[in-house]
Design a protein that fits this description.
The chain is α+β, with helices and mostly antiparallel strands and 135 residues long. The chain is built from 1 helix and 9 strands; from the N terminus they run H-E-E-E-E-E-E-E-E-E. The strands form 2 sheets. Strands 3, 4, 5, 7 and 8 form a 5-stranded antiparallel β-sheet that branches. Strands 6-2-1-9 form a 4-stranded mixed β-sheet, covered by helices on one side. The chain is flat, with a radius of gyration of 16 Å.
Length: 135
């Protein structure tokens, strides 16, 4: 079978699981969440493309909004990076993407994403720094 077809099928199955979880929140932790982050090399030194997926699983269908921040961590050094325009507003999910230019010599170990809703809920989720396409 064609490898591209298998990859497409796997991606579609992942999307179906994602939408089922959003629409049927039974047994799933409720509330605001950073579902995933994808990091991709741009080919330029120290420059990385990011794509975040934010979700809200709730029995209510109210829109959630607030601020978003990324913190790159390398040992004891932490650098705050902008994420989009620094804000989010969505009902079920939102994808946020852009590029970061890393400070010279910084080799992050992880990225912490911090969401603060307008209602005061604060979510922080850490991800291992794994950049795809880095050579």
């Amino acid at each position: 079978m064609n490898m591209n077809l298998l990859a497409t099928m796997a991606a579609l199955e992942e999307q179906v699981v994602f939408y089922k979880r959003l629409l049927s929140p039974k047994g799933v932790s409720q509330g605001l969440n950073v579902e995933r982050i994808d990091l991709q090399s741009t080919g330029k030194p120290g420059q990385v493309q990011y794509r975040l997926l934010l979700t809200q699983v709730s029995n209510k269908t109210a829109e959630v909004n607030g601020t978003i921040e990324a913190r790159l961590v390398a040992g004891s050094r932490t650098v705050s990076m902008p994420v989009g325009d620094g804000k989010f507003a969505f009902q079920y999910f939102q994808s946020v993407s852009g590029e970061w230019q890393l400070p010279p010599g910084m080799k992050p170990e992880r990225v912490d994403i911090v969401l603060t809703s307008s209602k005061g809920q604060r979510i922080q989720k850490s991800f291992k720094w794994e950049v795809q396409g880095q050579g």
